[in-house]
TrEMBL record:
It comes from the Bacteria. The keyword Thylakoid does not apply. It comes from Nocardioides endophyticus. Keywords: Signal. Residues 88-153 form the HTH luxR-type domain. It holds the Pfam family Peripla_BP_6. This is HTH luxR-type domain-containing protein.
C-alpha cells in the first residue's frame, strides 16, 4: 500500500508598510507573528530601510531551532516589504543544518580555518564538512559550491558567528542590528548577495525562493440560470492566467484563480461568496454582473484589495466617485448602463440617416426588465430621440415574469414602432419577448441588450435569431487582436467564446497582471490601484481607462469621441448565424440587413 500523499507546504506572508508597521498577514494569525518570529520580522524591517531593490531567500532558525525558509523582498526605502516563509522545511541535497552554516561562510569567501573559528570547531572538521558539501552538490570546487549556495539560496541568517567581515554583503547587513551598524545608513548594493545575482562564469541551477501564488478571487456563477455565462468568464480568466504564468508569472510569481459559485440574484449568496473570497485573503476580486451589487462593494471596500467588476451600473460609479476614501479600490471595467438607451437612439438614427433603415415610422419603444439599481438612461434617451426626429412614445418599465414578457412582445407587435429596445440581460426573458413578437410580427427592428452574446441564446433561438440587432457596453471586437484571442480560447476549450464577457474576463486578468507588475507589491493594494489608474489598457474588448473620478471605463462614441481611450458601444446584427458589427465606425464590418420577419 502506498503511503499518504505529502501534505502541501503552507506558505505564510506578511507585508510591512514603508514605516515597518505590519500591514497585512496571510496564512498565520497576526498574534503569531510576534514572539518567536520577532527576529525574522526585524530582519525584514532592516531590508525595507535599505536603498535600492533587494530580494533574498535564506534559512533562519526559530526559537525551537527549527529551520524556516524565508524570502524578503523590497523595492527600496519608502516602499513596502514582503516577507514570505515556510516552516519545518527540508534543505535540498540532504544538506544538514551544520553544513548549511559551513556553506554560508564558504560562500562569503572564508577559509576553512576562519570557518572553524566562527563555528568553534577544528579545521579538520570543517574540511570534512566541505568535502561532504561538494559531494552532495555534485561540484568539484569551493567556488562552484559557493555559486550553488547563491543560486539556490543555501544560506542561513543571521550569519553564523556574527556579521563581522560581511558588512558590505546583504546577508551581513541583514544580520546586523541597527545599533551595530558602523557604516553608512544607506549601504551599497552588491551583486554577490543582491537580487539573485550569479557568480560570473558559473552555471546556475535555478534559484530557490518562496513564491506564494498571487490569488485572483472571482465570483462567477457556474451553476444555475446563467451558468454558461459564468463558465465563459472562468475559462477566459484561466486562459489569461495560463498565458501570464507561461511567461514567468508576475515578477516570477504565478497567478492562481480562486472561483466561488453564487446565485447572482440572491443577496445572501452574493454576500457569502465575497466573504469567502475575503477569507481566502485574495490579492484582487473580480465579478460579472450581480443583482445586489452594493453587497459586493461593501465587502470589497472592507477587504481593500482591488475589485474589478462588470456590473454596468452608473449607480456604482457614482458611489465610488462620491466616496473615494472608502471605495477607491473598486473599478468598473465596462461603461455604465445609462449608455444603453442613448446608444439605441443613436444607432437607429445612424441606420436611418445612412438609408439602411426605411423611414416607416418615427416611433421608438423601450421595454425594460427588473434589475436592481439599473438605469438604462431612458430620460436622456427621450431628449436625444426628440432632437434626432424620433418619438420615444412607449416605455414599459420593471417587466418581470414570463407572462409579462410574453404580453410585451405581443403589445409591441401591435404598436409597430420603427424599433424596440428589449431591455433585459437574460436569455429566457429576451427569447420569450422575441417569440411572442414573432407570432404576429410588425416591420419593427428588434434591438436586444447583451443576452445574444451568450452562446446559449443562438442555440436556443436557432434560425429565429437571424436579423436581430443587439448591443453591449463591452463587446469583443472583430480585429486581429480579438481574433487571436478567439482562436486561443477555442484551442483551449474546444468552443468559441461569446462576444462580451469572455473577452472582458480575459482583458481583466491581463490588466491586473500589468498593475501587479508595476506596483511595489501585489499586496500593496494602494499601489496596485494607483497602477490601474495610470495609462490606457488595450484589450480584446477595446481600450480601458480608469482615470475618471468614478473609475469606470468610457463609452465610445457616447461619452467620448476618442476610441483610443474607450470601449465602443457595439451594435451587432446576427447575419447568416454570425455576429456582425453594424455600428459604430470605425468598427463596422457589415451593413444592416432587412430582418426576415419584415414584409417584402
Amino acid at each position: 500500500m502506498s503511503g499518504a500523499a505529502p501534505r502541501p507546504t503552507a506558505v505564510h506572508e506578511i507585508v510591512l508598510d514603508h514605516e515597518g508597521v505590519l500591514s497585512s498577514v496571510r496564512g498565520i494569525e497576526s498574534a503569531d507573528v510576534s514572539g518567536r518570529l520577532d527576529d525574522l520580522v526585524e530582519l525584514a524591517r532592516r531590508a525595507g530601510r535599505l536603498a535600492g531593490q533587494h530580494e533574498l531567500s535564506f534559512y533562519w532558525r526559530d526559537e525551537r531551532r527549527h529551520l524556516v525558509f524565508a524570502t524578503v523582498r523590497t523595492l527600496g526605502h519608502q516602499s513596502r516589504t514582503s516577507l514570505s516563509w515556510t516552516e519545518d522545511t527540508v534543505v535540498p541535497h540532504t544538506v544538514t543544518p551544520r553544513e548549511l552554516e559551513v556553506l554560508t561562510l564558504l560562500a562569503g569567501g572564508l577559509s576553512n580555518a576562519d570557518i572553524a573559528k566562527r563555528l568553534w570547531t577544528s579545521p579538520r572538521t570543517v574540511t570534512t564538512h566541505v568535502e561532504r558539501i561538494l559531494a552532495k552538490l555534485g561540484v568539484r570546487s569551493r567556488a562552484a559550491a559557493a555559486s550553488v549556495a547563491i543560486e539556490e539560496s543555501l544560506l542561513v541568517l543571521p550569519v553564523p558567528g556574527g556579521p563581522e567581515g560581511f558588512e558590505r554583503l546583504l546577508i551581513g547587513i541583514l544580520s546586523t542590528s541597527e545599533t551595530e551598524h558602523s557604516g553608512p545608513s544607506t549601504p551599497p548594493r552588491l551583486p554577490a548577495f543582491g537580487a539573485g545575482s550569479r557568480v560570473p562564469g558559473v552555471p546556475g541551477t535555478g534559484r530557490r525562493s518562496v513564491r506564494r501564488p498571487i490569488l485572483l478571487g472571482s465570483a462567477f456563477p457556474v451553476t444555475g440560470e446563467i451558468a454558461e455565462d459564468g463558465k465563459e468568464m472562468v475559462r477566459a480568466s484561466q486562459l489569461a492566467i495560463d498565458e501570464v504564468n507561461a511567461r514567468g508569472g508576475v515578477n516570477g510569481r504565478p497567478v492562481e484563480l480562486v472561483n466561488v459559485d453564487l446565485n447572482i440574484k440572491d443577496g445572501t449568496s452574493i454576500s457569502r461568496a465575497f466573504e469567502d473570497l475575503a477569507g481566502h485573503d485574495v490579492d484582487a476580486m473580480v465579478s460579472g454582473y450581480l443583482g445586489d451589487q452594493e453587497v459586493a462593494h461593501e465587502i470589497a471596500a472592507e477587504h481593500r484589495a482591488p475589485y474589478l467588476h462588470a456590473a454596468t451600473l452608473d449607480s456604482m460609479v457614482r458611489l465610488v466617485q462620491d466616496n473615494p476614501g472608502r471605495y477607491g479600490n473598486i473599478f468598473q471595467i465596462c461603461p455604465s448602463d445609462t449608455n444603453y438607451g442613448p446608444g439605441f437612439v443613436q444607432a437607429m438614427t445612424f441606420l436611418r440617416d445612412s438609408r439602411q433603415l426605411p423611414r416607416r415610422s418615427r416611433s421608438l419603444a423601450i421595454v425594460r426588465g427588473r434589475w436592481k439599481l439599473g438605469d438604462l438612461g431612458i430620460e436622456r434617451s427621450v431628449e436625444l430621440a426628440e432632437r434626432s426626429g424620433w418619438r420615444l412614445d412607449y416605455v414599459a418599465d420593471d417587466v418581470a415574469g414570463t407572462e409579462a414578457w410574453r404580453e410585451q412582445g405581443s403589445r409591441v407587435a401591435e404598436l409597430a414602432p420603427a424599433a424596440v429596445m428589449i431591455g433585459s440581460y437574460f436569455v429566457d426573458e429576451t427569447v420569450t419577448f422575441i417569440r411572442s413578437f414573432r407570432t404576429n410580427p410588425s416591420p419593427t427592428v428588434l434591438y436586444a441588450l447583451y443576452a445574444p452574446s451568450i452562446p446559449r441564446f443562438r442555440v436556443e433561438m436557432g434560425p429565429e435569431a437571424e436579423g436581430l440587432l443587439w448591443a453591449t457596453t463591452t463587446g469583443t471586437y472583430s480585429d486581429q487582436v480579438a481574433k487571436r484571442f478567439t482562436d486561443r480560447y477555442r484551442d483551449a476549450w474546444a468552443v468559441s467564446p461569446g462576444r462580451s464577457h469572455a473577452g472582458i474576463a480575459y482583458d481583466r486578468v491581463r490588466i491586473l497582471a500589468n498593475a501587479w507588475s508595476a506596483a511595489d507589491s501585489p499586496r500593496d493594494f494602494a499601489s496596485v490601484a494607483d497602477s490601474l489608474r495610470q495609462g490606457v489598457h488595450r484589450g480584446v474588448n477595446g481600450a480601458y481607462s480608469f482615470a475618471g473620478a468614478g473609475q469606470s471605463a468610457l463609452a465610445y462614441p457616447l461619452s467620448t469621441p476618442d476610441p483610443s481611450i474607450s470601449m465602443a458601444h457595439l451594435v451587432f446584427q446576427i447575419q447568416d448565424n454570425r455576429q456582425r458589427i453594424v455600428h459604430p465606425a470605425p468598427y463596422t464590418e457589415a451593413t444592416f440587413r432587412r430582418p426576415p420577419w419584415w414584409p417584402a
